[in-house]
Amino acid sequence: MGLMSFWTGKRVLVTGHTGFKGSWLCLWLEHLGANVSGIALQPDQAPAMYGLVGDWGGQAHRICDVRDASGLTDMVKRAEPEIIFHLAAQSLVRRSYREPALTFAINVGGTVNLLDAVLSCGSVRTVVVATTDKVYAENANGAPYLESDPLGGKDPYSASKAAAEIVCESYRDSFMANAGIRLATARSGNVIGGGDWSEDRLVPDAVRAFGDGKPLALRYPEATRPWQHVLEPLGGYLAYAQALTEARHDVPSAINFGPDPRNVATVGELADELASVWGIRNGWIPAEGPHPPEARQLSLDSTLADRSLGWRSRLDRAQTIQWTCGWYKAMLSGADMRAFTIRQIAAYERLAA
Q1: What domains can be seen in the chain, in order of their start residue?
Q2: pLDDT above 70: residue 345
Q3: Is the model's pLDDT at 1 over the cut of 60?
Q4: Dihedrals φ, ψ of 39, to 5°?
Q5: 129: which of 5, 176, 186, 332 is 20 to 30 A away, CA to CA?
Q6: How far is Cα 115 from Cα 110, in angstroms, rounded to an integer?
Q7: If 0-12 CB within 10 Å is exposed, 13-18 middle and 19+ buried, where does residue 217 land?
Q8: Tens-digit pLDDT profile for residues 57-69
Q9: Which of 63, 48, 66, 160 is nearest to 115 (CA)?
């Protein structure tokens, strides 16, 4: 993908940089030689990926809530980025049921605030907004979603991300095109990998349960998801931003970055595989009680990413699970997690070369 030569010296801003995906992306960008700035809230988990893979001595780290329009604009102007990755979000489906107003305020209002800040900045050439595979209106036949499929979302999280897609389309057509700024959205699947400690997510819940010697309680073991290692969509984001910045005319404004169809598995199947690699028998049990509704099946068609960017999934499901469990086991053994994470990044670069 020619990443190293392109990213060396680029001024890059990552919103949500203290989160799981943001931390991986910042470390990869630094590894590629970019000058990285970050805007986010303080990590709300302990341990936190962002702290585990520090030192961030070369990074301009700024704390700001994306709902604070004036504060966000000031920080974007100070960073003077050429390229922005917008990852800041309320990203938990179950939390969105508990706090729908907050979810819409962050995911929709925060996106509006960022795009307004971009228009007032003057230095920005490219913006990639990360959304989700859940932006699509649920289909009845279970077919993989195409970028041309209707947007929708029944739960507040999915609806807020679909709304963010519409916001981006409006700003692109109304303002960004005339300003010479390339704005695009990236839709990825269920991301797993080392360093995620969020609530109500399969791998963090599994690591906590297995560490306590308990089986993992699953809400929807028969639900099907497009599982992928965190480096897969991030590699797509990097290639996407590069193509947009180089003003390639054949680059679409929204792309799916999903796993190989063979990586699709039910929640129960993935939990079984995680338990096997971890060395746990009887790895899960059905969770008791009523649960908020979630889509029963999700999968993405990533043909457009391959055709327009030459991007495709590199890790099969077994590798994805091995890399993920390996990261957590290394952390629990006291390894230098910055060095370990960079080694995984370098190994992925070799696969993608």
Answers
A1: 3-190+228-259+297-315+338-352 (3.40.50.720)
A2: yes
A3: no
A4: -130, 125
A5: 5
A6: 9
A7: middle
A8: 888 889 999 999 9
A9: 66
